[in-house]
Design goal:
- This protein is an alpha+beta fold.
- It folds into three domains: 136 residues, no CATH class; 68 residues; 106 residues, no CATH class.
- It is 23% helix and 36% strand.
- The strands form eight sheets. It has a six-stranded antiparallel β-barrel with strand order 3-4-5-10-7-6. The chain has a four-stranded antiparallel β-sheet with strand order 2-11-13-12. Strands 16-15-23 form a three-stranded mixed β-sheet, covered by helices on one side.
Length: 368
């Protein structure tokens, strides 16, 4: 009976351990990327027309020049000095060209004003070539803007919601050129971790070799994994990539505390540990108040009436608390101990800085 109980206990503990590991596991596709499969940034300069008097002013010379050049290309001769651009705005158009985008497919574009236009609502973007870093045109954007904001008012008052000088065109760019990348011709694949750690790379290497056979993967360094396409997946590279990226790996991370003193934000990792240290916390309140007092001479006396400032300073300090944090406490213990002494986020930032200076904090302290 005892033997059966022991076996049941061992199985239960093993199942609990596996569940705990699986609960923290992450797919390879979420922690690594396939080399060569990435977005490409595109940018272009264009004009938005059809604005209701909210376009660039006449002092924006590049808008006037762009409009004149466009009209001349369309066969219309205009006098530069007679051109008004109240309904026209110069914009920068940006887009992300996704991997495997083919000619004829559409992508979203973001349109941002570069002149002094106050509102792009109701405007239409004219044909704008979108170029890559190499100068080649990969897409052409055109269409009505979706701004999702409003801005009305006069000289004395103004009402505005959201940001009226930036808009989007869903599916507004037509892909004209493809980025060459032949996935099916590759004999091996290279994966790069988004956060390079040797422990994570070792676990990823083990997971791939366990699933597809030994010597399928080889870790090059702490952030690069080279994978051979198995013979069973010859000619089926897409299926192999899908199966590989679905494998679960428990990622490793550095013990790190990130604090933003301006906003009082604190983010701590679960591996943060501290040595035995005593923390004393005291809430110090400093109140400075100023009031004006008038000093006036007598009715027949000589002198001037002056204003004399009176400054009062009041300092109050609550009883301090001394909390001892033992060696190797976890993040939950640290948070509980700091909450026990009533520390505010800004106080906690100062306490962490002091603990780090004392050499008792075994984590990287990042101050934004």
């Amino acid at each position: 009976m005892r033997s059966v109980f022991n076996k049941t206990t061992v199985l239960a503990l093993a199942a609990l351990l596996l569940f705990s590991v699986a609960a923290h596991a992450t797919r390879i596709k979420d922690i690594a990327r396939l080399e060569g499969v990435r977005d490409n940034q595109l940018v272009g300069y264009g004009l938005v027309v059809g604005l209701n008097g909210s376009g660039d002013s006449a002092s924006t010379q590049f808008t006037v020049q762009s409009l004149v050049n466009m009209m001349e290309r369309l066969g219309v001769t205009v006098d530069r000095d007679q051109v008004k651009v109240d309904n026209v705005a110069a914009v920068i158009v940006t887009a992300q060209l996704p991997p495997f985008a083919r000619a004829g497919s559409t992508i979203d574009v973001l349109v941002s004003s570069v002149g002094d236009s106050e509102n792009l609502a109701g405007g239409t973007l004219l044909m704008t070539p979108l170029r890559g870093p190499d100068g080649n045109t990969f897409a052409v954007a055109q269409g009505p803007l979706v701004v999702g904001s409003l801005a009305f008012g006069g000289e004395a008052a103004k009402v505005q919601t959201n940001h009226p000088t930036v808009g989007r065109i869903p599916g507004g760019a037509l892909v004209e050129r493809e980025v060459p990348f032949a996935l099916g011709d590759l004999q091996s694949l290279t994966y790069r971790l988004k956060n390079a750690y040797f422990t994570t790379m070792s676990r990823m290497n083990l997971a791939v070799n366990t699933a597809f056979g030994p010597e399928t993967a080889a870790a090059v360094d702490g952030g690069t994994l080279r994978v051979k396409i198995p013979a069973a997946f010859a000619g089926r590279t897409v299926d192999f990539v899908a199966a590989l990226e679905s494998l679960d790996v428990v990622p490793d991370s550095l013990a790190r505390i990130v604090v933003n003193e301006r906003t009082g934000t604190i983010v701590m990792g679960e591996d943060v540990r501290i040595s035995t240290v005593a923390v004393s916390h005291s809430n110090l309140s400093l109140v400075i108040s100023e009031s004006a007092q008038v000093s006036q001479p007598n009715a027949f006396g000589e002198g001037k009436t002056v204003v004399v400032p009176d400054t009062g300073i009041e300092v109050s300090e609550q009883d301090s608390s001394l909390v001892v944090m033992k060696r190797g406490v976890s993040i939950g213990d640290v948070a509980g101990a700091l909450n026990a002494i009533g520390a505010t986020p800004r106080d906690i930032i100062a306490i962490f800085q002091a603990i780090k200076a004392a050499g008792a904090l075994h984590a990287e302290l990042v101050i934004l």
